[in-house]
## 1
Amino acid sequence: MTGEAEPRRRREGGRGRRKADGHLPQLPWRAVTNPYAPMEVLSADQVEAIHLTSLRILEELGLELMSAPARALMRAAGASVDEATGTVRVDRGLVAQALSTAPATFTLTPRNPARQVILGGNHINFGLVAGPPNVHDRERGRRPGNLRDYCDFIRLAHHFNAIHLIGNQVCAPVELPANSRHLDTYRANLLYSDLAYHCTAIGAGRALDGIRMMAIARGVSLEQMAQHPGVMTIISVNSPRRFDEAMADGLVAMASHGQPVVITPFTLMGAMAPVSLAAALAQQNAEALFGVVLAQAARVGAPVMYGAFTSNVDLRSGAPAFGTPENAKANVASGQLARRYRLPYRTSNASASNAADAQGAYETEMALWGAVLGHANLIYHAAGWQEGGLTASFEKLVLDVEMLQLMMEFLRPVVVDEAELGFEAIRGVHTGGHFFGEPHTMERYEHAFYQPLVSNWQNYENWEIAGALDATARATDIWKRALAEYEEPPLDPGIREALDDYVARRREEIGAGEP
């Protein structure tokens, strides 16, 4: 299955403009930057204490590295390797050397160069939810992930300008063979959007397929891709202190081909990390730095990103919790650590809510503020995350896009000049008057304020007459309208054929047992 059974959409292109009358209002595509000073919840001394504890973890305790080839790379780089246990210890000199060669900023170039994204500095990018095995909407309910829904999520990611990158399998198409479904999802990413995407790095083979398919779509060689990356991956550390074989091999494959790797420990306080925030940050930091060293051992100068996913569990039940005060503080503090090492920074906004409801909104917004105040360069799972990451929700995606657009407008710098100060407008309105008809107002009428995607500003009587729909119900209508408005980005027929040929060939090879 390749997704061809889905109804065909318009193919005229046309991303990155404010929609005409009758279409959903949204902000145009743009690079988003954070012009404000980053918040700091840790003092300089506290950051240094966490750093030094991380070095002790690396030097005295080490991490288990389950891949033999990866251990060989680390040994060659100067790490201490215990083959009997798989434990690798890294001294502070090796950490410093790796940090000196990791770039502070890098760019991802997808098949449409106009959709480049910059990771680092004051740039901030929002990614589609990634990884859930299930999908949900209000009309069809909760169901296993499938390719049809996957393709519609990719269409929505392309349609909504607030989403800059596609994550790893927005929902798993479980009806397809597990060992080759990544080919179908990469193909959908490339056909139904023109955005950069995340490669699955469970082993080298899946990672290499993602790299090669983006190279085909761009019409470039693997060597050119190494110089100008187009895909990335998230390397999830099996906290505490373990890199499994598949993740390590995926990291090495990506880094050796010059594609960015995002090292992300999954440190839930009270479960996979100590219960105190300082200790959890120290463990997270050690695991992230270990990944940086491995990436630089695979290829000096390979782009790498400091990833953070520190939150807490409910100690009464063991259930993961997100969007908590602890999670928000960890998002800010992790940004301080990433800046200490001059590395781009990835974190997430997330929620434990089982529905696209008020809990889902306020937990997501709490985490989102922590990420923005912490100067994240990539906010992963930014649109569509539900049920602690077990479900991709159509309604939640729409509600999240509204929150992302609100944040994008908040991040616009305030302009203070003669025209904006409006002294003549103030002079022209008598005491106790109003500014509705003032030229200063009329000149700015269309774009003075943010036009919401979901929010309803009718009075109660008109809202009731219109059906008394709450935000979640309105989101259902919006995602359906967005799919109707979606325009498939143009793709050269020769490139499409080359992608189809690659998928067919690799499917046969994988079925024959090749990696």
## 2
Amino acid sequence: MSERSPETSEYVIEMNHITKVFPGIVANDDITLQLRKGEIHALLGENGAGKSTLMSVLFGLYKPEKGEIRKNGQVVKIDDPNDATALHIGMVHQHFKLVDVFTVLDNIILGAEDTRFGFLSKKAARQKVQALSDKYGLKIDLDAKIEDITVGMQQRVEILKMLYRDNEILIFDEPTAVLTPQEIDELMQIMKNLAAEGKSILFISHKLNEIMQVSDRVTVLRKGKYIGTVNTADTNKQELSDMMVGRSVQLEVSKEEAHPGETVLEVSHFCVPSRIHNRNAVNDVSFTVRAGEIVCIAGIDGNGQTDFIYGLTGLEKSNGGTVKLCGQDITHQSIKKRGENMSHIPEDRHKHGLILDFTLEQNMVLQRFMEPRFQRGKFIRFQEVRSYAEQLIKEYDVRSGQGPVTKVRSMSGGNQQKAIIARELDRDKKLIVAVQPTRGLDVGAIEGVHSRLVAERDAGKAVLLVSLELDEVMSLPDRILVMYEGEIVGEFRPEDTNIQELGLYMTGARRQAKEGGKKDGE
């Protein structure tokens, strides 16, 4: 049953006075959002501001306590994602909704299968998906299993899932969080093309550059409340960040010159086999990281960075070379033993960073519960655990509905990330391995993470950073190593290079010789 507006609406979607409550928190507090046909409308806010919750209401994942949704002026009832799909509303989720053991093609058509005489017919589906892949530059192996492809490739699968269903209203929840700069540029163009075709896009992002580049209007939320909607052409990044955080945010990394000390991490001729192909994913990699410096491994996603970190931390076995930490050979040590000597902020916070059905306080002591501070006579000292968790929650501004007893699964992605960063940095190890540490964080939280990593560097820690964010690559580290097809092809100081030069190395168009640092062709 639907109720028609007395006059034709200029909005394809209206979310009027939406209120959504979870235990201990009002996630959406009387929010109104209006989307015009053919526009790209950005939704901006801090981690935990209620952006993903609002979009989950529109997609039928949550039912609001108050408010109504209208499509083309008509009140519609969206009780579940099937209702949303019937209304041609699609969503690319921040945390992927994929089946790891299924192929790419199977994941894309899941729930929208074409059957003939009771049998699944994939031929037409494959042709349609391949055509979409070619049209929008989302190249991917349709027969690869999800568990065997990179996070960036998984994001492409999510986008193709939505395009496959011919949706008119497209929700992108942090779609670029795991994409490379080149992929982001391609996605921005895809979004513009989709809008030009008449599709309407709701775009959640923390990245102000992207919002300024692609959106027509921006709606800002803060702590579950509506702050305002502005035309993108009439605002700037500083104004948007101030609206979002409620204070002035420093958008540039502030740091003094590094004064490196002794070598903390020494990697020599290191190799890691590929999980997919019969060759090395990481081949003959050598470098050092010293105390008091930040070294960044940069590159296009899928060029061996993930495999290298897996080999370094023990998640994958290496098949050549050595790794020394503070002079000790750790090449064949167990994951647990390595973890005692390094902090690791992982790329995939769900797979390797958190136990989602544990509470926040339990996750905060995952690697420390055996310490005397947290146990006595093999019994956990629960009050000490809670006190410690409350301290980190306050210090790192980790927002959750029920504080330390909140189930981590219910927290926003950004606050999950802040919880991992708090836990790992507080462990006080000589080496900090930070892989995409600001993924999914808002500008205020990014500012905090950058300042903390610089403080760790200045306190004499060695920081190995892996980042796909070119702004971060150019501003945070003291040295940059470019990885292409599993090899280090260039080493730079940020002040001696630029994004264009790095791009040539990241795409394999140029590389330095292993001895002498000269470029090919010189």
